[in-house]
Amino acid sequence: MINLLMSLMILFLAPSGNTAFSIVNDTSEIRTLTESHEINYEETYDEIFNAECGLYAPTFFRLKTEDNETPLCRGRFLHLRLDISAFCEQYNGENIPISEDALRCLDEMLAFIESQGHSVVIRFSYDGFFDGEGVKEPPLEIIIMHQEQLGPILSKHKNAIASLETGLLGLWGEMHGTEMCNKDTIVAIVDKWLEVLPESVCVTVRTPLHYCWWRGIDRADISSDVTNPGEASYRVGIYNDGYFGSYSDLGTYANREEEVGWLYNQARHTLFGGELMAIQATETGKTCSSQLEDEAFITHTSYLNCAYSQIAFENLRNEIYNSKDSYYHGQTGYVYIRNHLGYRFVLRQIRMTREVLLNDKLLIEATIDNVGFANMIKPKKLYIVLEGEKYNYTIPVTEHTPREGELIVNGDPLKWDTGKNKVWIFMNLPNGIKIGEYNAYLKIAYTKADIDTGYGDYPVRFANDDENMWNEELGANYIGKVRIIRSRTDF
Known about the structure:
Helix content is 23%, strand content 26%. By secondary structure, it is α/β, with parallel strands linked by helices.
């Protein structure tokens, strides 16, 4: 065991500039790591579509009591705004449960979105037709009943849901313009969403004040609020539909510096984004993209409405980016912001063993640069895929429990924060693997156990400027070739 640890120290501490070096294990076999030159390690300027991040398209739909025709909601990333006012007294004359026909329609709607491998931010509202002309929600006990009805449908399609905005209250479901938007009501509604939704779905409220009401803390103390995995508060964040509309983001923030600082931690595991307003240059004195760049890395911004505000997006399209990231100099501010929303993984280096003895260990060292504003929110797993002429093998990394002589470092993509992330994999080949040459891939996706509906596993595509890297059929990123051999005489 000591010799193995010494070998791994040689592996990990070797200069990164070396293109090849060897390690010696406790049985004196030689393993050589070589850099793959089959890949372009530069980032593409193209838009790369991955789930739960990017520019979204707003989609409105009114659920009726009967005769709902299921819409085929198309778009890789949607903000699904669902009007359920037909089930409250203001529009129906009485407060009633959501009908079976409406629930069936919602189920089919989300099933279609999931079948396309697309994702949604979802919000429910009692603001009829989303006209913003006034809303009278049903009593809290009716709202809770509706949440209990919606929970099983949303849970069934949890992989398609990037996040759920608390909604239900106020104009457009944005939690303002109503007497019901008070502390007791918000606490009850957020608690119920957390109860009826699976742990992988985060819940967001409109402002830090709403979060503090629910959390039971003084708003002035929010900067010291740190949540931990397993706590209910770990799943609760905010969304911002006044993004850069003013210094306070149209009332979103009371103390911008402190509350944005709080988001630096909280938005690492809850989805943050909203609607970009026309920036008030008189208050900030900054250009559009540089202001966004400075703060979006702190708030880990993952999504923005592509349709609002057109003035703000026109400013970005007309601006030539010339800020901190020199690689994007000469691109428009729009391209820079679009490409950095959410997580964006670029493979910067891959080193691996090109020949592996049957029943021996495969070594991979990867440098993965998350150039995006945010990290991945929903828990996906890392795999190695070996594609041969006759046989394919998918080897779990994240869920793999290292046995004696194995080591996995940083194998959970959820922990790949903005910046460079080193991943080391030192693990046995699968039992019964056939000898031969294989194309090796890294795959990030949901596990079979996570897929309750039989739909896709939402694989993540790297943003390398290499059209041959992505294998659509496998949903995996090519890293090089590896040869499985029976003995040294096969060299």
